[in-house]
Amino acid sequence: MPNHTIADILRGLEAKTFSSEEITQQYLNAINKHDSNYNSFITVTAEQALAQARAADAARQNGSAGTLCGVPIAHKDIFCTEGVRTSCASKMLDNFIAPYNATVVERLATAGVVTLGKTNLDEFAMGSSNETSFYGPVRNPWNTDCVPGGSSGGSAAAIAAGLTPAATGTDTGGSIRQPAALCGLTGLKPTYGRVSRYGMIAFASSLDQGGPMAKTAEDNALLLQAMAGFDHRDSTSMDLTVPDYRAGLNKDLSGLKIGVPKEYFSEGLDPEIASAIEASLDEYRKMGAEIKSISLPHTHLAVPCYYIIAPAEASANLSRFDGVRYGYRCENPKDLDDLYCRSRAEGFGEEVKRRILIGTYALSSGFYDAYYRKAQQIRRLIKQDFDEAFKSVDIIAGPTTPNPAFALGEKVSDPLTMYLEDIYTIAVNLAGLPAISLPAGFTKGKPIGLQLIGRDFDEITLLAAAHQYQQRSDWHQQAAPGSV
Ligand code: GLN
């Protein structure tokens, strides 16, 4: 099972090699048997999955199958799922049963997927290691002493362990790409506005974007096809036609201009990652691409800028968790103030509180101009760097992360070191651009991710570039030692 892709499963279902019920049962058994090694699922929806699988088998029989009919996947537990606990890995939402489905969940259901369950994450998606979850850390199937990355670490570990062929993720500053890199997967952060945020619990609304995680670029294309498109319930959703991503996978890439930012090969980058990225660029040269050195001069400001904007938005978004309407409420509150204070003090974990404090401080009247306004100005400069670069190149390539998967506990007590984990991914969110991470080698048995960044709404070129590289390499086909 470990190398089963969505494309393989669709072929098997079409050829009647197995039914959706059979393959769903196999994945449920695998989760049951092996997830105690990884802690990648918060909730497993076995009965519901089997009912969906039987319905998918019936739909396939009577010719009403959607594009992903009968394919099992998992959802990051940040997407609202009707009737199923949606916890965001927080004590605050441990008892929250979502009354409706996120648009992403609904669209994938319409395409016919079977939902195995909800995957673990950093609390409210704040983190890069999946260690801030109320439900405990997730382990990396490539090395169980290491983190899987975050915040979509449960999704990444579940796929790498062979417990699901694919999953959804969200990416506010790197949370799809970084765990994909650390777990040897392919993960796409779509352009801001391409995939609806409706029903996706908000962290930093101007940065959050849902997207697919799977083994291959082809599977990412299949998932994105079902997820993308205008949604009137998300006011930042873009009303643009969604191209046929799978048909675009083989688009001619000769003459593709790939820019390589010199700032992405800075001090702090693991030398083995640097050489793996160089080697993948050589492959692109052989494929007829032209590699150019470029500069994104404001790169060094991306992390500090993000750590004002994201906490500021988080402090506003998380004010809704007040112990009154839903979620955790403290015992025996003395009065309303006590109810607010203790519900929030007891319901949120440390990292979430740190972000709320930073964000509230940055937005307070005496400091707004010095921090928040300044960060917005820097955000514009970062976007302009990309605009300038895309005048002369079609995509931008570099490492996804400065280092491979690190040990559990290694960075969790040092937030600044942890924040630098996203040094190559964060600018993309600030600029709203699409980017993909794909496997490009190994160092000491741990996967390395290559990041490709595209122009606004040009996911198709990224998917094609990733797919064609995967036709010439087998990094994405390697199975983690612990996988089923
Ligand atoms: N690691 C970053 C953070 O902690 C990004 C998280 C994300 O993309 N959700 O904010």
From TrEMBL:
Domain Amidase: residue ranges: 22-463
Chloroplast as UniProt keyword: no
Signal peptide annotation: none
EC number from the UniProt entry: 6.3.5.7
Enzyme superclass (EC): ligase
UniProt subunit comment: Heterotrimer of A, B and C subunits.
Family: Belongs to the amidase family. GatA subfamily.
Protein name: Glutamyl-tRNA(Gln) amidotransferase subunit A
Organism: Zhongshania aquimaris
